[in-house]
Specification:
By secondary structure, the protein is mostly beta strands. The chain is 11% helix and 54% strand. It contains 2 helices and 8 strands. Strand 4 and strand 5 form a beta hairpin.
């Protein structure tokens, strides 16, 4: 199953809770993964998944985080699908 990846920006207007961590409103970098299956020459795309990347600086503002952590990657797919984050393409 081939996967296409791209960097995107996730923006939250309000605090978002992911895996017990309360992420404050703001913009964060994430990886969007689009997987597809190919059957008889036709591509069928699966729903995209999103992995939120937090730096040590981001984690200082996160309530419930472990101190002295250099960074974290969290699965934000449900929060994106639920409308907690707005997805924007990242201009590199």
């Amino acid at each position: 199953m081939p996967i296409q990846k791209k960097l995107v920006v996730l923006t939250a207007d309000a605090d978002v809770t992911i895996e017990g961590l309360k992420i404050p409103s703001g913009s964060y970098t994430a990886t969007e993964r689009n997987a597809y299956t190919s059957r008889r020459g036709k591509k069928s795309f699966l729903p995209p998944t999103y992995e939120l990347h937090l730096t040590a600086r981001d984690l200082r503002t996160v309530r419930g985080s472990i101190e002295q952590t250099l960074g974290a990657s969290l699965d934000a797919t449900r929060q994106v699908q639920g409308g907690c984050f707005i997805v924007a393409s990242r201009n590199l």
